[in-house]
Amino acid sequence: MSFESNGEIACCGGKLLKLSHKSNEIGSHMDVNIYLPKQYYNGDGNPIPVIYFLSGLTCTPQNASEKAFWQIQADNYGFSIVFPDTSPRGDEIPDDKDQSYDFGLGAGFYVDATEKPFADHYRMFSYIHEELPHALDKFFNRDAKKLEFVHNTGITGHSMGGYGALTGFLKYYGKDRYVSCSAFAPIVNPSQVPWGQKAFTGYLGHDKELWKQHDPSYIIKNVDNTTGSEILIHQGSSDPFLEKQLRPDLLLEAVKGTSWENKIKVNVVDGFDHSYYFVSSFVPQHAAFHAKNLGLI
Amino acid sequence: MSFESNGEIACCGGKLLKLSHKSNEIGSHMDVNIYLPKQYYNGDGNPIPVIYFLSGLTCTPQNASEKAFWQIQADNYGFSIVFPDTSPRGDEIPDDKDQSYDFGLGAGFYVDATEKPFADHYRMFSYIHEELPHALDKFFNRDAKKLEFVHNTGITGHSMGGYGALTGFLKYYGKDRYVSCSAFAPIVNPSQVPWGQKAFTGYLGHDKELWKQHDPSYIIKNVDNTTGSEILIHQGSSDPFLEKQLRPDLLLEAVKGTSWENKIKVNVVDGFDHSYYFVSSFVPQHAAFHAKNLGLI
């Protein structure tokens, strides 16, 4: 599994690599950006931990690369950050029949679709959590272990990507994959909100019992928080999607009486919206959180 | 002169205001963004210094607001930053007949045009350095001096905006306006490079002697650096426009034997390009430079 380079951009003290590769899971080319911090180029040679940032509806790898400003934090602490795409792309990929922003292209929702015509290509769960990390590991660590893509990684994301981060973290909990999870304005309970219901119906079908396997607010009830993990969430109080789509209160409600109670740290921040102005404002706090969990501080 | 609000966005510890106003100089509505740092809301009440960031070709006020990451620096030091537009806008505004990216809309070049059909609207020099600062001063300081828009300000910019910053700083030198100037990959000698020659021909006509009044590499020879001012410049070594359009060496050559010799600090940074990845990487250094000149550290 090889990657092509579409650009190598000097940024802060390291480089942002714009890559693409043929994905077997997705059945087409996928773009992915990765920031290699200054420690990659002049560090002590120890493997550098990786954080995955999953973007939200409509986004490509470029949005967060340009606007979230993780790079300076990556240099501060010595981690690498991977910005995957949010869906399959290309003329051969089926899109929403209405070409809406919240389903189909740009809206893969980080699930493996089972419904036609999406099941062949929309395999974003397997892509993000299996194929991509292993492909990156193979590509970058050919000669020596330079970056830790698979084990002891961090995962975070924004909105739909926050959903993807929570789900991945919980589904792999205790399996030596993600040791750190945070989210910016995540969709926490997709079964109960319009964005999630539309995506799950289209990608997974109408069986709402099945949806629960893909919904962090259900999954978390069956995951024992054996290590006292905390999950850091920021949510803007002026986010126009807060009341209808995001609802962090539903996750807090779901974990009452479980081993996750008081472990989900939801910070509702006054006046912030849903944009990258919000994300970039709290990236420094999330970077410190992940750096601590990854053993960097 | 009043401003309309098109949005007030929480960002870092302050707010980004998206404003627009009817400009007399330009003869149409102009957008401008301003970041008010946390000190504006909870500071000691002393007037907050302002830095103007002039953007490059094709940009609106949004590009630098989203991608340059001045905001966190503004909070660090306690300055405000103003992001003006780069040209007149609107259906009634004459554009380049070829609709090129480097002339007409999005490419006002920070000069007052004298040539038809541009002279009526393309008055960016008077707009940026006279009308806008005074209009902002009137609007924000109605009741008390909260922000210092006119005197003791900083000015900086990127590419065409770096040209605009250098020119404004030098033309107002010693007039208690700009006390601090820096630039990111500026066009330093427009008379000698294609972008500048195209703009000056179209906006100012064919008299090349006249162009010198608008060219920092000529203007600077007639400005006595009485206060030992330094100008900070960063320039990426892999900038595709370096050799043909930007040429910081021409400014260094121009100041040889003048009071500016050794005062223009050109940092050629290895591998950086012309994008906002480059700008944002060096904003922290420029912020510290301006903060020092503005008496904030």
Describe this structure in words.
2 copies of one chain form a homodimer. By secondary structure, the first copy, chain A, is an alpha/beta fold. Chain A has one domain (about 5-295): Alpha/Beta hydrolase fold, catalytic domain (Rossmann fold, 3-Layer(aba) Sandwich), CATH 3.40.50. Chain A is about 35% helix and about 20% strand. Chain A is built from 11 helices and 10 strands. The first copy, chain A, has helices spanning about 40, 60-65, 70-75, 125-140, 160-170, 195-205, 210, 215-220, 240-245, 250-255, 275-295, and strands at about 5-10, 15-25, 30-35, 50-55, 80-85, 145-150, 155, 180-185, 230-235, 265-270. In chain A, strand 7, helix 5 and strand 8 form a beta-alpha-beta unit. The radius of gyration of chain A is 18 Å and the shape is globular. The two termini of chain A are about 35 Å apart. At the A-B interface, strand 1 and helix 11 of A face strand 1 and helix 11 of B. Chains A, B: Belongs to the esterase D family.
Fold topology:
The structure is a homodimer of 297-residue chains.
Chain A: E1 4-11, E2 14-23, E3 28-36, H1 38-42, E4 48-54, H2 61-67, H3 71-77, E5 80-84, H4 124-140, E6 147-148, E7 153-157, H5 160-171, E8 178-184, H6 194-204, H7 208-211, H8 216-219, E9 231-236, H9 242-246, H10 248-254, E10 264-269, H11 276-293
Parallel strand pairs in A: 4-5, 4-6, 4-7, 7-8, 8-9, 9-10
Antiparallel strand pairs in A: 1-2, 2-3, 3-5
